[in-house]
Amino acid sequence: MKHVLEVDGVMLAFDNEPVLRDVYLKSATGRITGVLGRNGTGKSSLFRVIFGELVASSQSVRLNGTAYGTSRRSPQDIMYLPQHNFAPRHLRIRRVFDDFEVELSDLFHHFPEFTPYRNARMSALSSGQRRIVEAFVVLTSKTKFCILDEPFSQLMPIHVEELKKVIRRERTNKGIILSDHMYRDIVDLSDELYLIQGGKVHLIKGEDDLERLGYLRS
């Protein structure tokens, strides 16, 4: 079944300084939606609004055309990978996978170097390894949509490419929204691409648009 997630009319300010102004974004099953923007433009704030972690002064979030209030948010509908680590360091890796109802063997298939860590705690992993584990469980969980904020942070290029394979695989059964400072990977992955600039969202058709809007230098 295809699902559609829409957010619009988002108005958000911090200390009376506008961050987001009348923002619109759409995601759907089978589609990867990329969001670009320089640091501080409100990408993470928008993701938190969609997830229900942050309430804007004005916002409309709809799931399949029905208003989706914060009280209705469910992990079966939306999962969110924040920029910061979220899995407690004392937990064993297998416990994290059990909690998300994700197969640990799937991680080993894509990242065989994790096999020796089967019974290890999260604290035994490097920062990049922790990022892979957390991104993997969010991405492969049984949910309609997942939001990935900087999923490639601290990852080696070979791991970025492998995670991109998982992202492409998972879009067959969910909608994916993601952002990362490695913009070429976002451009490469995305079916739809948006740029947040000056508090507003611009639909991007190609790199010419990114140059015209000043995100890339010509």
What does this protein look like?
The chain is built from 7 helices and 10 strands. The model has no long low-confidence stretch (mean pLDDT 92). The protein is globular, with a radius of gyration of 17 Å. Helix 4 (127-140) packs parallel to helix 5. Helix content is 29%, strand content 28%. It is α/β, with parallel strands linked by helices and 218 residues long. The longest helix has 14 residues, at 127-140. It has one domain (4-212): P-loop containing nucleotide triphosphate hydrolases (Rossmann fold, 3-Layer(aba) Sandwich), CATH 3.40.50. The chain starts with a strand and ends in a 6-residue tail after the last helix. A hairpin with a 2-residue loop joins strand 4 (58-63) and strand 5 (66-67). The strands form 2 sheets. A 6-stranded mixed beta sheet has the order 6-7-8-3-9-10, sandwiched between helices. A 4-stranded antiparallel beta sheet has the order 2-1-4-5, with helices on one face. It has helices at 43-51, 93-99, 104-110, 127-140, 157-170, 183-189, 207-212, and strands spanning 4-14, 17-28, 32-36, 58-63, 66-67, 78-81, 145-149, 175-179, 192-197, 200-204.
Q: Termini distance?
A: 42 Å
Any idea how many domains?
1
Shape: globular
The assigned CATH architecture is 3-Layer(aba) Sandwich
Kindly report the spatial arrangement of strands forming the biggest sheet: 6-7-8-3-9-10
Strand content: 25-35%
